[in-house]
């Protein structure tokens, strides 16, 4: 197993995904429907993850997990309150859970390379 730190940040694909999702969430929750109370946790957690990502913090990986869980909770509340315009059906729920599981699996696989990536910077101030 390779123990050298990766040259690129392993969380970069996650950052891109969160920025795309954040754009659509911001548009949906703030501009189109004005559900600021539901959208604030998602957009706020994406902002915290982005700051930690650029700071090369070891907590960025955990922030990515928190962003994902926040997105799932807010999506379920959005469906439950009927804000989507259509109800949450079993096939849609299964697809959402499969996507969540795949994303969390990808996050778990990037955990160790990311911690190796930020390890050289831990001693620097």
Topology overview:
Blueprint (H helix, E strand, L loop, with lengths): L11 H21 L3 H19 L5 H21 L9 H29 L7
Helix pairs in contact: 1-2, 2-3, 3-4
Mean pLDDT: 86
Give the CA-based shape: globular
Number of domains: 1
Estimated share of beta-strand residues: under 5%
Fraction of helical residues: over 70%
The number of E-state strands comes to 0
Rounded to an integer in angstroms, the radius of gyration calculated over CA atoms is 16 Å
Biggest beta sheet attributes? none
Spans of at least 5 consecutive residues whose pLDDT stays below 50 are none
SSE string, helix = H, strand = E?
HHHH
- Sheet/helix structural class: mainly alpha
